[in-house]
Amino acid sequence: MKNLFYSFFELIYPQLCAGCNDGLLVNEEILCTSCLVNLPKAEIGLLSNNELEKRFYGKVMIDQAFVYLKFQKKSIVQNILFDIKYGGNKAAGRYLGKKFGLEILKKSPDFMPDLIAPVPLHSKRFRSRGYNQSFVIGEGLGESLGVCCKEIVGRVVSTSTQTKINRILRWKNVDGIFKVKDVSEISGKHILLIDDVVTTGSTMEACLLALLDAGASKVSIASVAIAT
């Protein structure tokens, strides 16, 4: 009877793949098998010179850098992140975060930060979207790693979109806009900073500096995707 009701519900309200928007089968979750298999994975391990680490060379000290997927326009990854960011699909954010965390543990089973901190949204943007996509991704990541995700950094200045400005202007756009809410929560701790997608890394760098300035002993970084 339960399966009959589920089939009827799916017929009226079909669950769609966040990657290709096709209908999901009963045993599929968030992504169809085809999209899941074809996710363009980046080098996730702790090897030096991974693509995320390269964005921070000579700029700021990081402990470890993790990246899950390669981001390109008009791709499966863009579709998924757009659905999470603008489509209200929190479940997809947590799902992707969990998958990311499991991949990290495969490569580095001993990696264990004290706290996960999402790159924050300004309150105006938060109110318009209803949530921070990096936070829900961080929740899923934390579930896999067994680490709490908490919004410990605040964005004190609203900025214009980063997508259509050059590297120098990106840095000026985010310089000094982040502040740790309670320094006692991060003092002497290893913080894992999480974001949904990194391009130049200027936003993450500004947030990372705020954490170090507030007393974090070290900061690692993680991004679901990196623009290639």
Write a brief structural summary.
With 228 residues, this protein is an alpha/beta fold. The protein contains 9 helices and 6 strands.
What does this structure look like?
α4 (76-85) packs across α5 and α5 crosses α7 (133-145). This protein has a single domain (39-227), classed as Rossmann fold (3-Layer(aba) Sandwich). The termini are far apart. It has helices spanning 2-12, 33-37, 51-54, 76-85, 90-107, 123-129, 133-145, 167-174, 202-213; strands spanning 65-71, 115-118, 153-155, 178-180, 190-198, 218-227. By secondary structure, the protein is α/β, with parallel strands linked by helices. Helix content is 39%, strand content 16%. It contains nine helices and six strands.
Please render the helix and strand layout as text.
Blueprint: H1 2-12, H2 33-37, H3 51-54, E1 65-71, H4 76-85, H5 90-107, E2 115-118, H6 123-129, H7 133-145, E3 153-155, H8 167-174, E4 178-180, E5 190-198, H9 202-213, E6 218-227
Parallel strand pairs: 1-6, 2-5, 5-6
Antiparallel strand pairs: 3-4
List keywords for this structure.
228 residues; alpha/beta; Rossmann fold; 4-stranded parallel sheet; two-stranded antiparallel ribbon; 16% strand; globular
